[in-house]
Specification:
The protein is mainly beta. The mean pLDDT is 86. It has a five-stranded antiparallel sheet with strand order 1-7-4-5-6, with no helix packed on it. A two-stranded antiparallel ribbon has the order 2-3. The protein is elongated. The protein starts with 7 loop residues before the first strand and ends in an 11-residue tail after the last strand.
């Protein structure tokens, strides 16, 4: 298995006027994520700038939007994310 098999691409769509009205969202809410997202506070790896950089971040989903504690906006800055792999344990080689 290659690393790319574990990456979850960031996908989203525009909020419809009906959704905005029924949910009471402000005009600041413009997109809805259509991909699975980590839980708030999870440490994850992110791919930035079409795979040129990989970073370890803490995911944040709060009143300011969806991003991470480093200030990356997941709609505009992040290409994909992945959960951290399990740590190596001696003697559990395949």
């Amino acid at each position: 298995m290659t690393d790319k098999d574990n990456w979850i691409p960031i996908t989203y769509r525009l909020v419809t006027p009906e959704e905005r009205e029924s949910c009471g969202w402000s005009e600041d809410v413009t997109h809805i994520f259509t991909c699975p997202l980590p839980d708030d506070g999870d440490e994850v790896l992110i791919s930035i700038n079409h795979g040129k950089w990989v970073d370890l971040v803490v995911f944040c989903n709060d009143d300011y939007g969806v991003g991470d504690e480093d200030g990356n906006d997941w709609i505009y800055d992040v290409d994909a994310w992945m959960p951290l792999p399990k740590g190596y344990v001696r003697g559990e080689e395949e």
